[in-house]
User: Fold this.
Amino acid sequence: METATAEIAAAAARIVVEEGLEYGPAKRRAAKQLALSGRAPLPDNVMVEDAVREHIAIFCIDTQPAELRALRELALVWMSRMAEFRPYLGGAVWHGTATRLSDIYIQMFCDDCKSAEIALIDHHVDYDPQTVTGFNGEPVEALTVAGRSPALDVVVGVHLMVYDLDDLRGALRPDSRGRTPRGDIAALRALLAE
Assistant:
């Protein structure tokens, strides 16, 4: 069974890197492509992330660092624009596994959850509002904008996820590997300066 889980993780990693799919859908598609029964255990996200890093190291080592930098630069632009809402970068762009097909996930912590949406309207920014599952498993509002990356010459999905200010404390707890799960503007600038 462990072999099947590792195969699913490797196949999911390929899908994540080459198609830009998120981990959950990539794991399900990988299991289906491998013709494994619905009872085959899916790998956890840590295992998939390890497989993504391995895939990048083998197949994308020449292109991925520049793509990651371009995405981080675009994230910094949006975080700076939305600075009053305490933005934190998360996901693959924060953890360093993003490629040109990855979206950017920014969590914002607001006193008034509608204020971020009003700010986008005031600045004439087109956005698509939707409700998604937040990092605590609860529904949160996500405002998705199309961000153009000049360095990559592509349009990137930038998801501005709106949380209550009280959620900020829990947002900074280390993940299962002891890493900070997201970073603020100063932390992102430090990554870009490396």
Q: What stands out?
A: The mean pLDDT is 93. Residues 2-19 form the longest helix (18 residues). The chain is about 45% helix and 20% strand. The chain has two domains: 2-59, 64-193.
